[in-house]
Every structure is written in C-alpha cells, then in structure tokens.
Amino acid sequence: MSFIFKGGIHLDSKKSRTERKPIDEMKPPREVVIPLLMHKGAMCSPIVEIGDYVKLGQKIGESTNPNSAPCHASVSGRVTAIEPRLHPNGDEVLSVVIENDFADEREEIFPPLERFVALGADELAEIARDAGIVGLGGSAAPLSEKLRASKDIVDTLIINGAECEPYATADNRIMIEETETLYDGALITAQALGVKNVYIAVASDKPHAIAELRRTLAKKPGIKMTIVHSKYPQGAERQIIRSVTGRELPAGRDASDVAVMTMNVSTAVALSRAVRSGTPLTERVVTVTGSAVANPKNLIVKIGTPIGEIFEACGGFLEHPDKIIIGGPMMGTSVSSLDVPVIKGTNVLIAFCGGEGELPCETTCIHCGKCVQVCPMNLLPVYIYRSFMADELSECEELCVSDCTECGACAYVCPARLSLVSAFRTVKEKLSEKTDREEKTDEDRK
Amino acid sequence: MKIESNRFFTSPSPHIRAEESTRNIMTDVLVALLFPLIMSVYFFGWRTLLIALVSVFSCMFFEWGYDRVTKQKTTVRDLTSTVTGLLIALCLPVSVPVWIPVFGAFFAIVVVKKLYGGLGKNFLNPALTARAFMYSWPALVSVWIKPNLGERAISVFGRVSRAALDPEIIASLTPLGKMKLGYLPSFAGGNTGVISSLRDVAVGNVAGAMGEVSAIVIVAAAIYLLVRRVITIHIPAAYVGTVAILSLLFPLGGNPGYLWAIYSVCSGGLLFGAVFLATDYATSPVTPRGRIYYGIGCGILTFLIRYFGVYEDGVTFAILIMNCVACFMDKLCRPVRFGASKKGGARK
To answer: Is residue A338 part of a domain?
Structure first.
C-alpha cells in the first residue's frame, strides 16, 4: 500500500454510468478543427495551406521551440480553412480545418519498430516529439521535454492511473483493455531512462483495472503496481509522487527535482503506439457522460472532432443541457458552444441538466477552516481569500498563493460556497502582472 | 432537440460543490445542542424551554431587526443566531428571569456580532460575551437550583415560590464552588451545600447552568459533532486534556490527584465550553497546530482562574481571553509549505 497525502476530499465518483462500458470507436466526423495549440508551451505555426490535401497522420503544425508539440491531421482530406476558432480554453486560437474525405489515406511519420530495439532517452524524446505526444491526463505538457528533463536524473517512473476526477473513466478502461500496450509503453520509457523503479499507481476504487493489471504484471517482470487511496486530487502530480514515493515536490519545481517522472496511462499507451506502429497522436479516448447524455460512453475520438458531434454519437441529449464541461468537474472548463473541438488533453466531456450546472449562491465566510483541512498544498485558503477581499496582494503573496494548483478542493467544501479558486487565479494573474511590470521598469532603468 | 448555446452556464471551476452549507452546519450544531437541552428539561423542568425559546427568539429577532434597520439582506436564515440564542440560554441557571437572556441576546447579536461586521468577522464569541455581560446581575445569574427540584422552586412562568428561599432547593454551592474551597464534592465538609457523588457529576444531577451539568450528554453531543465533521478534535482534546493534567498534578486539599482531575473535568462549564464555545468558528484558529495551542491556552487559563480567581468557573473568561489571540495563533502556526519539510528532498 502507499503513503497518504495530507488534505484532499472524498468525492462521489459518479463513474458508474461508464466504468463498465468497453471503449467504443466513434465514426470519424465530416470535418475536424485542429487548434495549433493543444499543449502547454509554444504555439505551432501551420505548415499546410488552404486547399492542400493532407493525409491522416501528416504533420500540419510545427514549432521551432523545443517546448512544444507538433499537430497532426486526424483525418485525410482537404484543408478548407486556417483561421482562429473557439478553443476549449475559451479563446479563439488559430486552427486548421480539414474536410474529411473518408479515404483514411495514412502517412507514416517514421518506420515502426516492430522488433524491440532498446531506445535511448533522446531517441525516445525525438519519437515522442514527432508523434506530438503530450500529457494526456489533462496537463498537456509535451512528453519530449519531460523525457529530456528526466534523462540521467530520475530513479523512479510512475505511470499515473489514479484518475481522481469524478465522471472520468477513460483511463480506467484503458488499464482494463489495453493492459499490454500500457505495460509496453511503461517499459520502453523505463528502459530509455534506465529507471529500475517503475510503478503503475491505480486508485483503490478501480478493482477491475487492478485485477487486470495484477494478471498482466504477474507474467511480466519489471513493473510494480501501487494501489493508492481514491481521494481527490490523488491524480495530481505532486500527490501521486507523494503517495508512491513519499517524496514531496515543492511548488514551482519539476518532478525531476525529486528524481521522479510521472506519465499518465493514456500517454504511455500513445507512446507505445508511436514507437511500435509509427502512428502519431491523432485520436484519444474520451469519457462522454453527465446527466444530460442519453447513452454515456467511453469513445475513441479523432482529435479535432467538435464536441457536439460526440454528444450526438452518444445518443444526443435527454434534456437541454445547462452546462457543458470539458475535463473533469473539479478542474475542467465550461464551454459556451458545442463547436469546440476535442484536443489532446480532453479526457472527459460532461453535460449537466436540471440545474446541476448552476452553482449555489455565495454567502459569507464563517472561518470554519474546512478549506485549510482539505488543501493538499498546506495553504490557508481562508486567509488568502480575506487578503484578496481586502486587496492586499503582498499579503496573498506572503501566504504562498503561487503554490495553489487550483485543484478546487477548498471551493468544493466551502460551506459559504465562495469562489475561492477564481479568487486565487485572479490574485496570481495580478501578481504576475506586477512582476512583469517590475521587470519592465528595471529594464527601462538600464 | 434544438440546442441553444446561449443557454449554457459558464463558470470557473470547480463545477460541483459539497452539499454542506452554513445552514446545514448550524443545523448540526442545533441537533447537538438538543442533547443538553433535553437533559436540562429532564433535570430542571419545562422552564428550561421557556428560557431557551425567549433567548433564541430574541437573537433571531435582533439579527433580523439589525439587517432590516441597516437595509441589508437578512442572514437570519443561516441559523447562526439560533445557535447563539440556544448557547446563551444553556449557560444560564433555570431560575433566571426571562428578561436577562433578552439583554444577553441584544449584546451578543448587535454589539458583538453585527457591529463588528457580522457573521465570521466578530473576534469574540457572541454567546460567551453575552454571558460575561449577564454577570452584571450576579444575584440573578449565579443562583443555582438543585436538579429535579426546579419545578417546585420556580414555576414555568417564573413565579418564584416561597420555597425559593429554602436552602433545600437553592444550592448555595455548585460542585466547583466546593472544590474551590479544597473539598471534593462527594465528601461533606466546609460549607455543606451539595453532596454529589461522581455519578451525579457525570450524569448531571448537580446544581449548575442548565446545559452544562451533564458530562455524559455533552460527550455524546461532542461525538455527534465530530462524526458530522462540524468540529475537529484538536480544541476540545487540548482544552480538556490540559485541565485534566494540571488538576492531576496540583490537587487541592490533599485529595487524590486522579479523583480531583475527574471532578475538575466533569464539573462546571468545562466540557460544554470545550465542545460548544471554544470551537466557535469565527473566534478560534483554523490551523491544526493553532487549534491545539489555543486549547492548551484555554486549559491553562481555566485552571488559573479556578485556582486563583474570584470566579468558581474560569471557562467563560479563559475562552474570551483566548479569542483575543486566536488569529495570532494562526499566524504563528502556519502549516509547513508542501515540499518544504524534510520529506521534500528536492535537489537544489
């Protein structure tokens, strides 16, 4: 069993509608909208033009910045537009629109390595980069950068299967149905990094996945399974590292600083695919659920599919939805349109109805301290919030507001239903603006 | 179905919230307060309910009235003033005239709570401050009726009978009063007002304030509050533990330390104060370590007042004094930043 991280909350998992449903493949859409920013880091520039014919898997966006991930066509067909389109983050982002010709003409980006060849960390990073793989658990950090940063430093690799967000079951199904591929992806990474301690961390609320992994791992050496508590935010990088290794990763540092690399289970599967069959990341598993969805499913979806079509593929809506959330209900973003496409980091789509989407009214802070009890980063949300209300930014800074990972545990438990997370987000934005300004004046002086 | 995008709510995350609201929490506190209230009705008669109703009604009225006068949206529905009202009532003796809690309620709600900015912003516990205020009438609030005889001494509507002057009915001393003189309540000696066995003290069959007499019932209420996660164990445990240890070490009158400790813990308002008053959200620390130090502070002050002060029971003033330093406790006891402890081990 594992270590326990302090704080956190026990949530109603809401996974029962989809956790037993096998992954289904969605019919490719008529048109895909591929934003050129689907990762953390530098944005890509389009390398195709309107009217070009693109093959499935062809690179259509690339950046010279190492901290980036290229974008690939997820269908074959003609590029009909390159223009700003609504992105899940709420902004308009330059996107490539491709009309599907349903020919599925493929392009292999690199020769598949059928036979097992031991890869070095740099070679693997290169493949991950070419395949456009990013953290599929929601972080969307380019995998190549993570591999390079971890090279020669880390002693532990954690494959993260905690999937702590309510409703999300995509990772659970992947662990059950793609156990071998998952194992392969983990092993490739471990060998490339020369890491001996490899753990697959699964939350205790996934007995089916645990059984499946136990069966596979019994036959195959080299990887251990750690069962972690099903508590939110167990799947967050800092908490999973704490739970598996007992090490605490401070805010503002990278996992490699505590000699650990973490990787989501879907990311490991995508990496194995890229290495074995030379396929770039053009599709992913998405859980489509929520009270408004007629037939919730775990679906393989082409990156760039508008979410409206995905809901259609799940039987449409029972009632007019109140709220559409991309990502989990704790950290996901609510969107105003069904035209928004699925991007690489999209693991869940939720449609709420019947008032579920409405948040309760805010009342007054009663200083109960529940936010302090649940904060996994050991912060004092109540005092940060008070300083925010008093407009004392320096006080917020002193209270380490920058450590906040916006997991939402404090806002969830708050009996006054205060929007703590958005308050802290505002504070952090103001603080970074302030630092920018200061830097600028410093430069001006010089 | 035609989907209209403008009908989607958008909001920052998180998109789900716990069921728990301020009102739910206060309902739980009220349920816990029913335990001592019912026990009090059993021991002191129906007048308990009258006092409780007057007190609760006054608090809610002042809350509503203040909001009305200052033209704010009223917060009376969050039930916090209901809790304050019940706390004020349960700290009083059953013989108290009904107008006393009305004054207490006014002071608690208007002066201590509302004038300091309302819910969550007051730094003193309203019910306790009201209690300290009501000590202005010592002859009325420090008269102790023996349990099970209440109805004979004073009718439901406060008609004081001839018997009220009868020493058989009015206890001249509570267990703590006797202890102050260095006697265990279970033994005769000194001013023989009350003789209470350990069982009487635990069950509550002793003279005292209405809600405070029964140790067992208060422990049951505390368990309810802990199970419902309304309070954490830090403050009550540190508070009661400190008083127990200090009494164990320094028993008066040459009595055995363990007996002295048990009587010290079970007598007076200690348990009631540790469970219901010291844990008041607005006036106690929020950090785990801060809560422990706060509890210890309350314990030491209670011990000192009981031993050296003029009051029999130091709970009221001990907690009020600690209220004044609660926010500093949080400042001093900031939790260790995640990753900054020894476990961190991040490379420089």
So the answer is: no
Which residue from B minimizes the CA distance to A374?
B287
Query: Percent of chain A beyond pLDDT 70?
Result: 97
Please write the tens of the pLDDT for every residue from A400-434.
999 999 999 999 999 999 999 999 999 999 999 88
> Which CA distances in Å does B330 have to A115, A230, A304, B170, B250?
61, 30, 49, 44, 31
Closest CA to B201 of B148, B263, B275, B270: B263
How close, in Å, is residue B308 to chain A by CA atoms? 34
Q: Check: CB of residue A305 under 8 Å from CB of residue A298.
A: no
Among candidate residues A277, A311, A335, the one where a domain is terminated: A277
Q: Where are the domains of chain B?
A: 22-332
* Residues of chain B positioned with their CB less than 8 A from the CB of A326: none
Total domains in the fold of chain A? 2
In a domain, A325, yes or no: no
Q: List the single residue in B10, B287, B343 with the smallest CB-CB distance to A334.
A: B10
CB contact B19 to A (< 8 Å) = no
Residue A168 lies in a domain: yes
Residue numbers of chain B with a pLDDT score lower than 70 = 1, 4-6, 148-173, 186-196, 342-348
Q: Tell me, yes or no, whether A68 lies in a domain.
A: no
Helix/strand/coil (H/E/C) assignment for every residue in A114-150: CCCCCCCHHHHHHHHHHCCCECCCCCCCEHHHHHHHH
Smallest Cα distance from B279 to chain A, Å: 9
Residue B7: list chain A partners with CB under 8 A: 320, 322
- On whether any CB of chain A is under 8 Å from the CB of B74, the answer is no
Q: Are residues A140 and A273 in the same domain?
A: yes
CATH of B22-332, one of 1.10.3470, 1.10.3430, 3.90.70, 1.20.1440: 1.10.3430
Burial class (CB in 10 A: 0-12, 13-18, 19+), B30: middle
| Contact between chains at B8 and A336 (C-beta distance less than 8 A) | yes
Boundaries of domain holding A142:
121-277
- Split at pLDDT 50, 70, 90, the class of A250 is very high
Query: Which of A25, A7, A6 minimizes the C-alpha distance to A298?
Result: A25
What is the mean predicted confidence (pLDDT) over A229-255?
Answer: 93
Does A269 lie in the same domain as A377? no
Instruction: Report helix angle B80-90 to B99-106, nearest 10.
Output: 130
pLDDT digits (tens, 9 = 90+) for A50-66: 999 999 999 999 999 98
Q: What ipTM, to 2 d.p.?
A: 0.90
